[in-house]
Design goal:
Elements lengths: L2 H9 L4 H22 L2 H18 L8 H20 L6 H10 L12 H14 L2 H11 L5 H7 L4 H21 L5
Helix pairs in contact: 1-2, 2-3, 2-4, 3-4, 7-9, 8-9
Length: 182
């Protein structure tokens, strides 16, 4: 069943929408959550919460890109769960990824809402080659390790690190051109 038909089931308030969503995207959503949480039960809970949130928000929302909509919800649930699980301690990989991006993310001195920043980041991502965009998103959206990215795309780890470094530099330049203090 395609995304349009599944969304129509949500609008019809047909519970089969959840089943079809799980069949189409359950594995990918679980992989996203489990990659962040590294805990099977917590990942399953994040995916279940994602289905519930989708049920609550569709309608009125009509996502243009259904999987991206679901993945964003699932990722947010997983990150909240990770924060809760590690209240006082920090997961090393999340800290590492955050530190990598610290040099090219806004410092909060400019008034900006998340929608505006999202639009700027979307525009930046469109300037990247498909290969660099995928590597960047695998690292900073999905939280993949350098080794996992290298293995998945048959690159050396040093090639992945170089791509990420150059992309972060380009992002910083792009944000500064947009008037965002970094």
């Amino acid at each position: 069943m395609n995304d349009h038909n599944i969304i129509e089931l949500f609008f019809a308030r047909d519970e089969a929408a959840i089943q079809h969503t799980e069949e189409a995207y359950g594995h990918r959503l679980f992989a996203t959550a489990n990659h962040i949480l590294e805990n099977h039960q917590d990942a399953e809970e994040s995916v279940s919460d994602t289905y519930l949130r989708a049920w609550e928000t569709i309608p009125p929302q009509r996502p243009r890109y259904f999987f991206a909509y679901l993945a964003k919800i699932c990722r947010n649930f997983a990150l909240k769960r990770l924060e809760w699980n590690n209240a006082a301690k920090r997961k090393a990989q999340v800290v590492s990824i955050t530190q990598e991006l610290e040099l090219c993310i806004p410092d909060g001195t400019r008034d900006m809402d998340s929608l505006e920043l999202g639009q700027i980041l979307d525009a930046f991502l469109r300037t990247l080659s498909p290969d660099n965009r995928i590597v960047f998103l695998r690292r900073y959206w999905f939280g993949d390790s350098i080794g996992e990215i290298a293995s998945r795309y048959q690159l050396s780890e040093s090639a992945v690190l170089m791509r990420l470094n150059r992309t972060r530099t380009k992002l910083r330049t792009h944000l500064e051109q947009e008037g965002i203090i970094v």
